[in-house]
């Protein structure tokens, strides 16, 4: 057993950087273990860079309230540190070690890896919780992986998170909204719980600014030395990586179609370069599925190209699909993983030697003036580009092909990304803080404060949803109920309204479908067939009602995967819809919502949708020949997305679920409404006067 520091024994060697208590450890001590008697996973663990810092990490966590750990992707932070803590006794006495991740898929993947390393069954000693999926056993789970969003929800029932001894907020550099909220809230909890330890870990971070954020108040600092409390100054530990050199190639001329360009780069690597797997960074399910399809087609009649094992990687993949990604590449084959930015730092894939970087990712942007939030394929930052490049140097020197010019990289790419907190709609964030009893939202202690306009907008929307009252307090029961449902407030409101409108069975299905990326199968190369399949289910009232037809068909087929295949429906997605729907039913039951079917009275259904999504109402432009709509609130130009059943149908009035932005703002998931409903369901939001001068 490797040694680790115990209180009362000689401390490991520290280097003080002379700047106010910030500690760096020298990495000069090595693991002297011969490896004798260890299983091969144990040896693998010992080869990871963090292993050398085991004693140092445990010492810092013991003696500091907050420890910041910076280390290159793949150095073992996520999989090893929770195990070190467990071995050192932090989970004794029924306590639990938590490790949060921004992404659901990362939670599942690292939890199953850690369970495997520890030789235990996933869901027992090691478990995970993501929204709508809880694989833990409160009696035995000691190491728990969860999304930061789930941990925020746990605070609603247990505001001080009393069952946790150590909370490791991982991937902090991603700066997701939930991570930032969590950091702000944990800082508060720390004042009340000196026994709690925080670890903030990330691949790249301005460790100093994070450290400044976690400095505690003077008052507490005075106690130091007299009590057994940990130091309040955060410690910083930097884990030295061991990445190999990666040679970078740029395009000489920019390309317009990065999917095509990525595909041809894969093929020429395969033709010209020695063995080694390829990791391609694209932006989302659509372009990833497209690239996978193109590569599979290439391999169909070509022996050399058929050596490629092409795998997509994005959230929502089944466990079986995830396993393929992590399983070793068979001899004579070359794996090509086509991924969103999840493989940038959250997941480590062994065997990658070549990286292809499109230079883009899908990002959320929000404009508080127009109140429009959309997902945009936007340029990544230099910091992200460097991370992507680093993925090629894990096992030996690698190569990175950037699908943009060097000039572009140097002159146009922003140095750092903007925290999600500062480019998102904060409706969900505000309601969560309110539910946690934080009344002064504007004065909350954020790592990077959002703009007051965005906060005010969120308060306004919540007020119009009936979730907040005149004093900006949660209303009872609606506000508390909406906060209780783990979905965006607009969907939650829609669910509550459905109880009164007598269509909760239908709305539950719609809510479940909306919480899934897409229920349709990938269309690349078969757009016509997909469109035809969609027409079979299409309802004149729009996408939401169409979902009900698909769901009904799926049930009538006895949930058959063949039926899904025949109809261009994603079987995995439908299985997920069933699961989510079941969970929502349970929540609804708890909230006292009466489950009732409206037997296809689509007016009730559309009214319920409007009760949640009235802020997304749009009217077609009177003389528009190209299907241009304007949002009622902000007069913004929007169009129906080609994937909607209402594309080219262009009804007069619609509400949409979300916007995606490419060359235009496109509404995804659209349903027809009667404009009269707007003043009925949201009188504060739409005053009569506002609508009256619009032609009906
Ligand atoms: P970090 O969090 O520092 O990026 P991780 O703890 O995620 O590093 O990974 C450490 C190492 O564990 C990786 O380099 C890889 O070798 C191995 N590993 C992690 N997850 C898996 C997995 N799902 N399958 C196989 N190996 C894995
Ligand atoms: Mg990690």
From TrEMBL:
SUPFAM superfamilies: P-loop containing nucleoside triphosphate hydrolases (SSF52540)
EC number from the UniProt entry: 3.6.4.13
Catalytic activity: ATP + H2O = ADP + phosphate + H(+)
Residue ranges of domain Helicase C-terminal in the record: 262-437
Limits of the Helicase ATP-binding domain: 58-223
Enzyme class: hydrolase
Keywords recorded for this protein, A-Z: ATP-binding, Helicase, Hydrolase, Nucleotide-binding
Hydrolase as UniProt keyword: yes
Record GO terms (molecular function): ATP binding; ATP hydrolysis activity; helicase activity; RNA binding; RNA helicase activity
Gene3D superfamilies, A to Z: 1.20.120.1080, P-loop containing nucleotide triphosphate hydrolases
CDD domains: DEXHc_DHX35, SF2_C_RHA
Domain of life: Eukaryota
GO terms under cellular component: catalytic step 2 spliceosome
Keyword Ligase annotated: no
Pfam families noted in UniProt: AAA_22, HA2_C, Helicase_C, OB_NTP_bind, WHD_HA2
PANTHER family xrefs: ATP-DEPENDENT RNA HELICASE (PTHR18934), ATP-DEPENDENT RNA HELICASE DHX35-RELATED (PTHR18934:SF136)
Record-given protein name: RNA helicase
Native source species: Cucumis sativus
């Amino acid at each position: 057993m490797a040694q680790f520091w115990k209180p009362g024994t000689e401390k490991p060697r520290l280097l003080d950087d002379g700047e106010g208590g910030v500690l760096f450890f020298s990495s000069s001590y090595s693991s002297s273990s011969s490896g004798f008697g260890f299983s091969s996973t144990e040896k693998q663990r010992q080869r990871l860079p963090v292993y050398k810092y085991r004693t140092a990490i445990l010492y810092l966590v013991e003696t500091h309230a907050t420890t910041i750990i910076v280390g290159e992707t793949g150095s073992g932070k996520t999989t090893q540190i929770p195990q070190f803590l467990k071995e050192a006794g932090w989970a004794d006495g029924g306590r639990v070690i938590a490790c949060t991740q921004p992404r659901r898929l990362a939670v599942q993947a690292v939890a199953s890896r850690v369970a495997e390393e520890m030789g235990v069954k996933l869901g027992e000693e090691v478990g995970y919780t993501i929204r709508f999926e809880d694989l833990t056993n409160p009696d035995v789970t000691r190491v728990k992986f969860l999304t930061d969003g789930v941990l925020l929800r746990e605070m609603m029932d247990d505001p001080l998170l009393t069952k946790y001894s150590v909370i490791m907020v991982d991937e902090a550099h991603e700066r997701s909204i939930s991570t930032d909220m969590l950091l702000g809230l944990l800082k508060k909890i720390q004042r009340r719980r000196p026994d709690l330890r925080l670890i903030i870990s990330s691949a790249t971070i301005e460790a100093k600014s994070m450290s400044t954020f976690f400095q505690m108040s003077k008052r507490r600092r005075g106690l130091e030395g007299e009590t057994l409390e940990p130091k309040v100054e955060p410690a910083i530990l930097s884990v030295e990586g061991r990445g190999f050199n990666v040679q970078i190639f740029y395009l000489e001329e920019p390309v317009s179609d990065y999917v095509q360009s990525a595909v041809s780069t894969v093929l020429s690597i395969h033709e010209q370069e020695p063995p080694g797997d390829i990791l391609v960074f694209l932006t989302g399910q659509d372009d990833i599925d497209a690239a996978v399809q193109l590569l599979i087609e290439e391999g169909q009649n070509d022996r050399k190209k058929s050596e490629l094992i092409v795998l997509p990687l994005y959230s929502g993949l089944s466990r079986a699909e995830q396993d393929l990604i992590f399983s070793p590449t068979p001899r004579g084959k070359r794996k090509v993983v086509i991924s969103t930015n999840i493989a940038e730092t959250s997941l480590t894939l062994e065997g990658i030697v070549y990286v292809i970087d499109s230079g883009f990712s899908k990002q959320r942007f929000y404009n508080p003036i127009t109140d429009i939030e959309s997902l945009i394929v936007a340029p990544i930052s230099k910091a992200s580009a460097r991370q992507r490049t680093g993925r090629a140097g894990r096992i030996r020197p690698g190569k990175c092909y950037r699908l943009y010019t060097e000039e572009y990289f140097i002159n146009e790419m922003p140095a750092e990304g903007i925290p999600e907190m500062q480019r998102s709609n904060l409706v969900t964030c505000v309601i969560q803080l309110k539910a946690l009893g934080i009344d002064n939202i504007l004065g909350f202690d954020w790592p990077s404060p959002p703009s007051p306009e965005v906060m005010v907008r969120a308060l306004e929307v919540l007020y119009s949803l009936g979730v907040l009252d005149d004093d900006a307090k949660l209303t009872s029961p609606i506000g508390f109920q909406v906060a209780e449902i783990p979905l965006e407030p607009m969907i939650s409101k829609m669910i509550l309204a459905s109880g009164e409108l007598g269509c909760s069975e239908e709305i539950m299905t719609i809510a479940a479908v909306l919480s899934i990326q897409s229920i349709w199968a990938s269309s690349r190369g078969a757009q016509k067939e997909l469109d035809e399949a969609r027409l079979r289910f299409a309802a004149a009232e729009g996408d939401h009602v169409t979902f009900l037809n698909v769901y009904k068909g799926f049930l009538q087929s006895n949930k058959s995967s063949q039926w899904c295949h025949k109809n261009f429906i994603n079987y995995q997605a439908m299985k997920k819809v069933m699961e989510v729907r079941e969970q929502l039913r349970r929540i609804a039951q708890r909230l006292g919502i009466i489950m009732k079917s409206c037997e296809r009275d689509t007016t009730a259904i559309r009214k319920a949708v409007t009760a949640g999504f009235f802020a997304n109402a749009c009217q077609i432009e009177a003389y528009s020949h190209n299907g241009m709509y304007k949002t009622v609130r902000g007069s913004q130009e929007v169009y129906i997305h080609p994937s909607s059943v209402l594309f080219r149908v262009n009804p007069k009035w619609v509400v949409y679920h979300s916007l995606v932005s490419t060359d235009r703002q496109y509404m995804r998931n659209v349903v027809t409404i009667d404009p009269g409903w707007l003043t009925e369901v949201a009188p504060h939001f739409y005053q009569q006067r506002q609508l009256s001068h619009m032609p009906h």
